[in-house]
Amino acid sequence: MAQAAAEMNDDDKALVISQLANGILRLTLNNPPANALSIALMQTLRDELAAAEENREVRVVVIAAAGKLFSAGHDLKEMTGHREDADRGRAFFEKTMRMCSDIMLQITNLPKPVIAEVDGLATAAGCQLVATCDLAICTDTSTFCTPGVNIGLFCSTPMVAISRAAHRKQAMEMLLTGEPVDASAAKEYGLVNRVVPKEYLRTVSDKYASAIASKSPLTLKIGKGAFYQQMDRPLAEAYDYTAWVMTENMLARDAEEGINAFLEKRDPEWTGR
């Protein structure tokens, strides 16, 4: 794994705390109180995700956060500080938005499932991060919003992920009003999968992660990739594509092993081939 967090003697100084156990990689945003997505934090998160892709021991990634907020989005103080640049901050703003967008694409393209474990406020790019993850589990006191419209900065990049996760009318409601939605509304909208009491958050996310980590890593890679590839295709083309995917999947050794294990009533032994 990337060593940015692991080499720190004091986890309080690490912007992302990395912990790997039983195939589950926990990446904890550690930039309280707001867990703002500063350039430094995003760079660290990007490095950790890149390392996770290469590490065969990682089966599933959980993105959590330290403190009372999941993430308040971009670091507005950091961004405002660059308004004194000769270009009024254009280059820095472009760098910030591009890096954030790259991370969202990185999560979507990662051949391993990513779960958001949310406790507290997820706003703007923080809400975008939740919407981008493959699954999301939150506490019943968590809230979600895209408040950029309130400060003259429409949440256009968060809109990409949120409009693909939530129903269109609800996504527009969030974007146009900037008002927060509670956990139960977030589940109704499609932003999260489960809402649980705070004391059960880690237990439930671990349960999901463990269940996923027990599957064939090759099958997870094939399935996650196919899910996003087929979504925006016309119906007939989507069926053509997924029929080809299933045929290739059927020829994989893990599919042969899994089917034989099912028929023989035993646990499969995955090889990732």
From TrEMBL:
Superkingdom of source: Bacteria
Transmembrane intervals: none
CDD domains in the record: crotonase-like
Pfam families linked: ECH_1
SUPFAM superfamilies given in the database record: ClpP/crotonase
UniProt KW keywords: Fatty acid metabolism, Lipid metabolism, Lyase, Transit peptide
GO MF assignments: hydro-lyase activity
Record GO biological process: fatty acid metabolic process
NCBIfam families from the UniProt entry: PRK08139.1 (NF006008)
Function per UniProt: May play a role in fatty acid biosynthesis and insulin sensitivity.
Family in the record: Belongs to the enoyl-CoA hydratase/isomerase family.
Protein name: Enoyl-CoA hydratase domain-containing protein 3, mitochondrial
UniProt organism field: Flavimaribacter sediminis
